[in-house]
Amino acid sequence: MSHPIEILRFNTCGSVDDGKSTLIGRLLYDSKSLMEDQLEALERSADITGGGQINLANLTDGLRAEREQGITIDVAYRYFATPRRKFIVADTPGHVQYTRNMVTGASTANLSIVLVDARQGVIEQSRRHTYIASLLRIPHLVIAVNKMDLVGWSEARFTEIRDAFEQFLPLLDIKDVKFIPLSALNGDNVVDPSKETPWYVGPSLLGHLETVHIASDWNLHGFRLPVQWVNRPNNPRDPRLHDFRGLSGQIAGGTVRVGQPVMVLPAGHRSTVKEIWTHSGSLEEAFCPQSITLVLADDIDVSRGDMIVGLDSLPGASTELHARLCWMHPKPLQKGKKYFLKHTTQTVQAVVTAIENRINIHTFEAEPNPSELAMNDIGEIRIKTAKPLIFDGYSHNRLTGACILIEQGTNATVAACMLQPPVEPIRPEYNDFAI
What we know:
Largest sheet: 8 strands, antiparallel
CATH architecture of the largest domain: 3-Layer(aba) Sandwich
CATH class of the largest domain: Alpha Beta
Number of domains: 3
CATH topology of the largest domain: Rossmann fold
Oligomer: single chain
Radius of gyration: 24 Å
Strand content: 35-45%
Distance between the termini: 48 Å
Structural class: alpha+beta
Mean pLDDT: 83
Low-confidence stretches: 47-52, 61-73
Helix content: 10-25%
CATH superfamily of the largest domain: P-loop containing nucleotide triphosphate hydrolases
Number of strands: 25
């Protein structure tokens, strides 16, 4: 039985004109992952950028404004595959005012590529994006030192930039960091190893993307299934579906097996798993991040927004939340403002009760009690919700520990939040009247 090919999700980030879009274009072009119509469109667009030369950045910079200005504005997603692995890549903007787009593109990534211009070295955006990668707990980080051809492929310059990063990396929670010297424009060390770097003995960028270990990136401890849809086909012509009542959603953590005891939160009702279904048939076992439909042994009340969990490792439940967030809106965050809070498959009303600190992006130190948080600021806040949230700490589970704040009236997403661990997890004898 053959195993499915793994999917690696990664994003590129860095400052303006560091070559992020060109790097992705080079990956697609040199790995022969482009269709004929894409190649033809690339050649036709050459006159837009001047000089009649193919601009690989146009493979991801799809907006006309992006091509005319030579910058990336929005997040562009591209898909490609090699015999070893499938890839989903998010090309994110470098401008400071588009940091929120970088957070969006990186939120589901296994790996983040921070590009650094070899001429410029480590700048504020390099530090900001590395910190955000740490904040989002992206398991793997690549520091791609680009445009090495413009500094004469200097090993000393590459070492200088690596040493500058290693001065502050210990302050961040990133365990797997790889430094790669390359030239996205010329293709050196992107897909194939370069003869220009005899002093570099590591893999090319694609070689690293194909081999980095990601099997353990998903949280496989503590089963979590946020219920997205109660599935009632009620098809009288199919006896199997006549009384079928399944609970559909994407597994947000752990594994589940037929016969496993589970609890439905927030009500606290218990049952066991009778059947597990996917689009391709029934399973005996499923794991994160599969999308499944569960059939429980007992006919209990379950609806969208509830969470089905295993009994071995229970989440927390509280209306008082402590979160770290990246503020994404031009209007600043202020204490006392009311928002909608979206967490997994439910949305509740919430109010910001305190702004505890703001992170100084130069020193990574917390500045206490700011009056507000401006766009792209990162800080810690306290939130009170209208009803209890069932959650884990973001450090334990990136899916059940994340939420967003939505402005009431405009429905604009204004913040991405990483929840701190609950004060104490739910006890096995929990019910919703205990809160």
